[in-house]
Specification:
Helix content: 40-55%
Number of strands: 10
Shape: globular
Bound molecules: zinc ion
Largest sheet: 6 strands, parallel
Length: about 250
């Protein structure tokens, strides 16, 4: 089953949370997002949260959002609700209430609409760069903070920038998370490791055909290959150098 990954959605007249090319690449315009949700419906599929997706119902697509931007509530939630879709919103705990991000009361509102909240760290660092204390803050304390806001347990974690390693997985497991979502572009099945869930990140440049294939769980080998090459570059260059290089390439 495909798990889609969305980020902030662009609304006319509203400033985005970040402006660097590596971020904007994953920002869809509201009409494009709406067209994609309608395409899911028209294909006879249903959008579901991570918890529901893990029961692997037939004809479903997992729908996830990272970062906890305000457009989760302003744009995505009303449309998803209208279509009868579920979704999981992974929230960066330390950004709750900051300009452009959901506030604690907005988090409660989105929960009240029946959507699921997951955790996306405390301050959005690359977790693989952190020591043990840093990991504890970003994985364990971030969970406590979110649970305090929404007065519900948080079962799912997604890794900022997709970065994860064995220490990250161990800390997430010990903290009581039931799953860990990555940005590895692959579909999930009942035999997939729950602490290495794949997700297909949707970029603003994606064509309708490619999107439909994603929803059917067809990930092109070229797409998977590019992701593997990017992954290798991140490891070889280190996170900081990789981000600088990507910014240069995307500005061209
Ligand atoms: Zn993120």
């Amino acid at each position: 089953m495909a798990f889609l990954l969305y980020h902030e959605i662009a609304l006319q007249g509203r400033e985005l949370c970040e402006s660097e090319p590596g971020y904007v690449r994953y920002v869809l315009d509201a009409p494009q997002f709406e067209a994609q949700m309608l395409a899911i419906k028209q294909a006879g599929l249903e959008g579901v949260s991570v918890s529901s997706a893990l029961e692997f119902p037939s004809r479903a697509v997992g729908i996830t959002f990272d970062d906890g931007c305000e457009t989760d509530l302003l744009v995505a939630a009303p449309l998803l609700k209208k279509l009868g879709f579920g979704a999981t919103f992974y929230v960066t705990s330390g950004r709750v209430g900051q300009n452009g991000y959901m506030s604690a009361s907005q988090l409660r509102e989105i929960c009240g609409l029946g959507f699921e909240i997951g955790c996306h760290s405390m301050t959005h660092p690359f977790l693989t760069d952190l020591d043990r204390d840093g990991l504890r803050r970003e994985i364990v304390e971030a969970k406590d903070r979110l649970e305090h806001f929404i007065a519900q347990p948080v079962h799912h974690f997604s890794c900022p920038g997709g970065r994860h390693d064995a220490r990250v997985i161990e800390m997430a497991r010990d903290a009581g998370y039931r799953t860990l979502a990555t940005s590895i572009p692959r579909t999930n099945s009942p035999s997939t490791d729950r602490y290495a869930l794949g997700r297909l990140a949707i970029t603003r440049g994606i064509k309708a055909r490619a999107f439909q294939r994603f929803c059917r769980g067809e990930v092109a080998w070229t797409f998977a290959l590019h992701a593997r090459l990017r992954d290798r570059a991140k490891r070889v260059l280190g996170n900081a150098a990789y981000v600088r290089l990507r910014a240069i390439l995307l500005r061209r």
